[in-house]
Amino acid sequence: MLNYNSPIMDAKNYSGIKISVTESVIKINLRGKNRDFITKIGKELSIIPPTDPNISSGNEKLNILWLGPDEWLLYSNDKIDFKNNNSLEDRLFDQISKVKLGSVTNVTDHWVMINLKGDNVFELLSSGCPFNFNDFKNSKGAVTQTLLNHIDVIIHNKNINDLNLFVRRSFSIHLWSWMNDSARFI
């Protein structure tokens, strides 16, 4: 893994919004099409990847987000134990990639996960995003890929007014600055 120290390690509280960066959680991109691929993931993780668009599945340790008909983002709810951080990836790689059922790619260093909580979260997102959040905000487990302040993001609705937002590391500081500036006026 990349030895990267993010300059946005703090949390910010505004009126009805808390913004914080969640570092050190494993993120794995999974790609595959056939039934054996889905079955192997289900057996290895005890979670069946969602096959319906824009939803997620998960348990107390892991979440799987639907990104496309043959693509998912797997992320952990717990911080990475750096001594054993490759065990999940290695198990998936052995069960899927080595037997040519699909691909397993560690994207932990590619994505920064920002957690947004509070009653005004969707007002903040709507101020810089073309996506209509009316149905999304009431759908626990919903997932969308959209633009926020002209930056590609993945948004996972974990619970009511509790979201995880994934942004590419190279755009994270810019998006963090925009969210903090915008949150002050909501």
Describe the structure.
The structure is a single chain. The chain has 186 residues and is of the alpha+beta class. The chain folds into two domains: 12-23 and 110-183, Gyrase A, domain 2, CATH 3.30.1360; 27-106, Alpha-Beta Plaits (2-Layer Sandwich). The chain has helices at residues 35-45, 87-97, 121-126, 169-183; strands spanning 11-14, 17-22, 27-32, 56-58, 62-68, 71-76, 102-106, 111-117, 143-148, 151-159, 162-168. The strands form two sheets. The protein has a six-stranded antiparallel sheet with strand order 1-2-8-11-10-9. A five-stranded antiparallel sheet has the order 4-5-6-3-7.
Fraction of residues in helix: 10-25%
Shape: globular
**Under the CATH scheme, which architecture of the largest domain would be assigned?**
2-Layer Sandwich
* Beta strand count: 11
Number of helices: 4
Order of helices and strands: EEEHEEEHEEHEEEH
Radius of gyration: 17 Å
Return the CATH class of the largest domain: Alpha Beta
- Helix vs. strand class: alpha+beta
Pick out its properties.
186 residues, alpha+beta, Gyrase A, domain 2, Alpha-Beta Plaits, five-stranded antiparallel β-sheet, 35% strand, globular
In short:
This protein has 186 residues and is of the alpha+beta class. It has helices spanning 35-45, 87-97, 121-126, 169-183, and strands spanning 11-14, 17-22, 27-32, 56-58, 62-68, 71-76, 102-106, 111-117, 143-148, 151-159, 162-168.
Question: How do the strands and helices of this protein lay out in sequence?
Answer:
Elements: E1 11-14, E2 17-22, E3 27-32, H1 35-45, E4 56-58, E5 62-68, E6 71-76, H2 87-97, E7 102-106, E8 111-117, H3 121-126, E9 143-148, E10 151-159, E11 162-168, H4 169-183
Antiparallel strand pairs: 1-2, 2-8, 3-6, 3-7, 4-5, 5-6, 8-11, 9-10, 10-11
Helix pairs in contact: 1-2
